[in-house]
Amino acid sequence: MIRIRPHWTVPAVGVGGLAIATLGWLLEPAAFYAGWLAAVTLLGAWSLGSMALLLIHALTGGRWGDALRPSLRIGLCSLPLLLLAVVPLLAGLRQLYPWARPDHYAGNHFYLNAAFFETRGVVYLVLWFGLGWLTLRARDLSRIAPVGLIVLALTTTCAAIDSTMSLDPRFVSSIYGMIAGAGMGLLALSAAVLFTVTEVQPAVREDFGKLLLALVVLWIYLDFMQLLIVWQSDLATEAPWYLARSRGFWGATRLVIAAGHFALPFFLLLSPRLQRSQTVVAGVAGLLVAMEVLRAWWTVLPALGLAPGWVDLACVTGLGGVAIWFAFWAAARPLLADARHV
Fold it and tell me: Largest CB tally within 10 Å, which of 4, 48, 113, 230?
């Protein structure tokens, strides 16, 4: 049982952030759509990553999952907000995606067109809501976990390609969906650890540290492999994706992400003693959440020639604050109570 509850300032900050983001929509629509896409990507990563970890634990077992289950259910309960959050993006398709402007794009219109894009989005949401409901209400989650994980892997891969990789329709990466999946799991695990770390024994915190370390290594391996393949291929259709994210401000941001998303967590979590430290585990988890925000901006904004600004910060804090409050509120509803304890 999670005894902590979000302070009243969390929804207040969320509502304030949404109000400022709305102002950004009026004053700087291009910046708003980019910032909102990054925020929606993070919301989806939290909810879907939480679902994936619940399904994985149903198959593998372990005290880590027993300890994190309430927090992961809270993360999954943020999923309904995704339905509302994607609505503003539909109005910004032409500003976000070159393929949504047929007069400026001569590529694959069979797959990359607004009607098919929206249809795929509806299919993803229907499958996610159905699987999320089963995950929250199933008494024996192991019976649906194998099929659920396959569905989740396929849909999240396609959704990542549609939502962010297609910002540059020339860029192609067969590992892109795996990187997005690793990031989802890492964000969901980090958030769950932050909610739970003060309530567990040192031995369980050590399990948290080991899991965070494993996902950090998986993420950097996949991310580096994509960079290596693109670098050694040096194709005109792929190299510009990294060039736009490796110059000036974004080049420095890439170094910060490498340090905060891999190097610092890796070396801190190598020590079993530090894995048992509440301060270290909570600090690493918080750092990884912050790095996921930074990486979301690094992925989305350079495609549109933008740098982070007040609109992007308002989008993340607004949607994030409301999502945290809503998730805690929804998880406490009797309809979504843990069926195993009913």
Answer: 48
